[in-house]
Amino acid sequence: MASTSLFRLATRAVRPSSFVRASQLPRSASRVQTPVALAINRPGFSTTSIRRSGQHDDETYEEFSARFEKEFDGVQDVFELQRNLNNCFAYDLVPSVEVLTAALKAARRVNDFPTAVRIFEGVKAKVENQEQYEQYLKALDTLRQELGVALREELYPSEQ
User: Fold this and answer.
1) Residue 146, Cα to own-chain centre: how many angstroms?
2) Domain around 87
3) Confidence (pTM)
4) How many domains does the chain have?
5) How confident is the model at residue 59 (pLDDT cuts 50, 70, 90)?
6) Nearest-5° angle of CA 123, CA 140, CA 80?
7) Coiled-coil regions in this chain (predicted)?
8) How far apart are CA 40 and CA 137, in angstroms?
9) Does any domain span residue 8?
10) Rounded CA separation 55/144 (Å)
11) pLDDT tens digit sequence for 125-140
């Protein structure tokens, strides 16, 4: 009995005048109706605004390297490491050896072996030719041996 009285109370609280029926909306043949989120100039799914800072527009390669070295030095978890790697490799350039060194040390610090291997795969994808890749491998060889990071070519020799 109590549940039916609650239902009656709930239905009485709803006022039919507050609803707008589709037949009551004004229709115009020359005008397309926009969704409410767009009509009031708000995003439909997110309430955060897009932030575009212009501080990296005219950044030199040295400033880029210094910025990402600093970011990789402050990495404390795998998510942060992978986010920084995605941001670093998104640019139309190959990161410097110093940036890759900081990234490899960060991967070791958060104990993420797969990401360390993927760093070398990213370098291989970004360089223009095999010679450049070999130069990066030569420059990072001592660190790679120290950290125990294998290359994909070493892990899966039959896939080449």
Assistant:
1) 29
2) 61-155
3) 0.64
4) 1
5) confident
6) 60
7) 126-153
8) 54
9) no
10) 33
11) 999 999 999 999 999 9
